[in-house]
């Protein structure tokens, strides 16, 4: 009892002390001096702790946070400004972690083709991906298992599957944009439309008709909850007691159960004639005889859904914005369709679209200028030297590649910042080095010295590229058949770098007029 009385008296005297104006100004000035001392010590610490062989470090004022604010406002400017000061390789601190960015073609090659013994993708991405995708797949398993999972996925992406997908994607696009149809046209929310359409087409084709049927209600909401848990904050903190974390974990369980129920029903009814990805993931076995279970298949399906959604929907949005900016390209695209198909009423097909060079180049140019992924990470697990320098990147740092730096470099692309799909008619993309098979099919030399790498390179290279092209080509071709489009008075939107996948600053509206 006596202790409680003493405590209350102590608190009362502290409150009286704090509310006295003379004491308050004393406390404030002590606080300011304290902060100043911490900032000075941080600066001194940065200078004393310099490892002579470590790459140069970007100085910062706020301990722990480091350069996080400058970086997240505009990472491209942050890289460009510091590249002028420190060269292609430098380290910056963010939220208590050190990132060594490696720019230029050599930087890309260094990160994408780094050895498994030196760096780990799993260590970089796991806190973000495992709670969303689930256990046992992608970055929640040894790398050799991921390579085999990529092989299972590639088997489900055959040309025959793509032939079946194109009419389905065309139909989904027509059905979706019927809602925009009126005689005079109007203004549409392009980003929202592309987000909804891409998830509809991916679920109709890859995920299977059962999932597509649920897309308008339950699955769409679950996808949003998973997506809210797939933000930069989740990369730094695997779990926090925030509503978005609870919703993410809940959505993961429900989504897995939905896939599992579809698999169970297919098994119960002996369904084997489906061409979708879900079917091709069933009954797979790893080389060492370990079965790839139905739960693994559910988790990998969630991973594919997440990997392909924002990447493709932002690319479709930017592509149509750039077409609206350059209306002559829309006319050329329609002329190309007529040339290849004979008429704009002929349905699109996988084989016919292979002959539509401009269409292909519109997507390639969009991905050069507006890649959705601008930073690729690996965690250093054994100190590594950057070739041609004395820089040794210490264990524990993350190495980062940012292929957009070469993609918008005048050294490789004339008028690099302008959207010009025709430039690709005179560029031959060389895949350097000998072919390598990491376990999911041959890729040329890791291909990492090509300045244009929106799909990455090396063992972690994207396996969704062909599907993404098929999906984007079909959506864009169908859209320009249905509507003419132009930019609103706001012009081209800026880029929002605060998201996991860089997207246009919202809202993104577009003017459209139905074609006769
Ligand atoms: C990997 C970009 C669409 C599935 C990657 C990587 C990039 C990328 C840059 C390399 C990541 C790294 O090295 O850390 C893109 C872009 C897309 C797209 C720009 C569309 C425009 C898709 C689609 C799917 C997909 C549609 C699946 C249906 C994957 C998978 C990986 C990957 C499974 C492998 C991850 C690994 O091995 O670590 N993607 N992607 N992507 N992507 Fe894509």
UniProtKB/TrEMBL annotation:
<feature type="binding site" description="axial binding residue">
    <location>
        <position position="462"/>
    </location>
    <ligand>
        <name>heme</name>
    </ligand>
</feature>
<keyword id="KW-0349">Heme</keyword>
<keyword id="KW-0408">Iron</keyword>
<keyword id="KW-0472">Membrane</keyword>
<keyword id="KW-0503">Monooxygenase</keyword>
<dbReference type="InterPro" id="IPR036396">
    <property type="entry name" value="Cyt_P450_sf"/>
</dbReference>
<dbReference type="GO" id="GO:0008398">
    <property type="term" value="F:sterol 14-demethylase activity"/>
</dbReference>
<dbReference type="GO" id="GO:0020037">
    <property type="term" value="F:heme binding"/>
</dbReference>
<dbReference type="InterPro" id="IPR050529">
    <property type="entry name" value="CYP450_sterol_14alpha_dmase"/>
</dbReference>
<dbReference type="GO" id="GO:0032541">
    <property type="term" value="C:cortical endoplasmic reticulum"/>
</dbReference>
<dbReference type="InterPro" id="IPR002403">
    <property type="entry name" value="Cyt_P450_E_grp-IV"/>
</dbReference>
<dbReference type="GO" id="GO:0006696">
    <property type="term" value="P:ergosterol biosynthetic process"/>
</dbReference>
<dbReference type="GO" id="GO:0016020">
    <property type="term" value="C:membrane"/>
</dbReference>
<dbReference type="InterPro" id="IPR017972">
    <property type="entry name" value="Cyt_P450_CS"/>
</dbReference>
<dbReference type="GO" id="GO:0005506">
    <property type="term" value="F:iron ion binding"/>
</dbReference>
<comment type="similarity">
    <text>Belongs to the cytochrome P450 family.</text>
</comment>
<keyword id="KW-0560">Oxidoreductase</keyword>
<keyword id="KW-0479">Metal-binding</keyword>
<dbReference type="Pfam" id="PF00067">
    <property type="entry name" value="p450"/>
</dbReference>
<dbReference type="InterPro" id="IPR001128">
    <property type="entry name" value="Cyt_P450"/>
</dbReference>
<dbReference type="GO" id="GO:0097038">
    <property type="term" value="C:perinuclear endoplasmic reticulum"/>
</dbReference>
<protein>
    <submittedName>
        <fullName>Cytochrome P450 51</fullName>
    </submittedName>
</protein>
């Amino acid at each position: 009892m006596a202790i409680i009385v003493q405590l209350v008296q102590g608190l009362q005297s502290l409150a009286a002390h704090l509310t006295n104006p003379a004491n308050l100004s004393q406390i404030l000035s002590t606080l300011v001096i304290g902060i100043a001392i911490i900032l000075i010590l941080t600066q001194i610490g940065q200078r004393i702790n310099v490892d002579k062989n470590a790459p140069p470090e970007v100085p910062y004022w706020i301990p722990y946070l480091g350069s996080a604010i400058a970086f997240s406002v505009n990472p491209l400017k942050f890289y460009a400004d510091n590249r002028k000061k420190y060269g292609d390789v430098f380290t910056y601190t963010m939220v208590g972690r050190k990132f060594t960015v490696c720019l230029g073609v050599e930087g890309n090659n260094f990160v994408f083709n780094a050895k498994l013994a030196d760096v780990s993708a799993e260590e970089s991405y796991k806190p973000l991906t495992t709670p969303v995708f689930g256990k046992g797949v992608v970055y929640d398993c040894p790398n050799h298992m991921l390579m085999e999972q990529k092989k299972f996925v590639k088997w489900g992406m055959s040309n025959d599957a793509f032939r079946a997908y194109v009419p389905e994607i065309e139909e989904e696009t027509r059905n979706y944009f019927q809602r925009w149809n009126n005689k005079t046209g109007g203004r549409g929310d392009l980003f929202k439309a592309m987000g909804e359409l891409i998830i509809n087409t991916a679920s109709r084709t890859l995920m299977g008709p059962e999932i597509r049927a649920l897309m308008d209600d339950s699955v769409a909401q679950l996808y949003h909850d998973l997506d809210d848990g797939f933000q930069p904050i989740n990369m730094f903190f695997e779990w926090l007691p925030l509503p978005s974390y609870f919703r993410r974990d809940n959505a993961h369980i429900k989504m897995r159960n939905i896939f599992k129920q579809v698999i169970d029903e297919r098994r119960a009814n002996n369904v084997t004639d489906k061409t979708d990805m879900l079917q091709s993931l069933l009954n797979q076995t790893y080389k060492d005889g370990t079965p790839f279970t139905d739960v693994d298949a559910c988790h990998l399906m969630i991973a594919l859904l997440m990997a392909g959604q924002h990447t493709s929907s932002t690319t479709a949005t930017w592509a149509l914005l750039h077409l609206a900016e350059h209306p002559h390209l829309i006319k050329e695209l329609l002329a190309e369709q007529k040339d290849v198909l004979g008429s704009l009423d002929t349905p699109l097909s996988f084989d016919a679209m292979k002959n539509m060079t401009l269409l292909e180049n519109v997507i390639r140019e969009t991905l050069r200028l507006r890649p959705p992924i601008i930073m690729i990470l690996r965690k250093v697990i054994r100190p590594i030297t950057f070739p041609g320098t004395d820089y040794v990147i210490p264990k524990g740092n993350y190495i980062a590649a940012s292929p957009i730096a070469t993609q918008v470099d005048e050294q490789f692309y004339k008028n690099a910042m302008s959207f010009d799909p025709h430039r690709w008619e005179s560029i031959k993309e060389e895949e350097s080095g000998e072919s390598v098979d990491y376990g999911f099919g041959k890729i040329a030399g890791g291909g990492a010295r090509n300045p244009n790498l929106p799909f990455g390179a090396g063992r972690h290279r994207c396996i969704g590229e062909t599907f993404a092209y098929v999906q984007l080509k079909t959506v864009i071709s169908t859209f320009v058949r249905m509507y003419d489009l132009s930019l609103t008075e706001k012009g081209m939107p800026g880029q929002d770098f605060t998201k996991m996948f860089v997207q246009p600053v919202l809202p993104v509206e577009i003017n459209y007029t139905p074609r006769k």
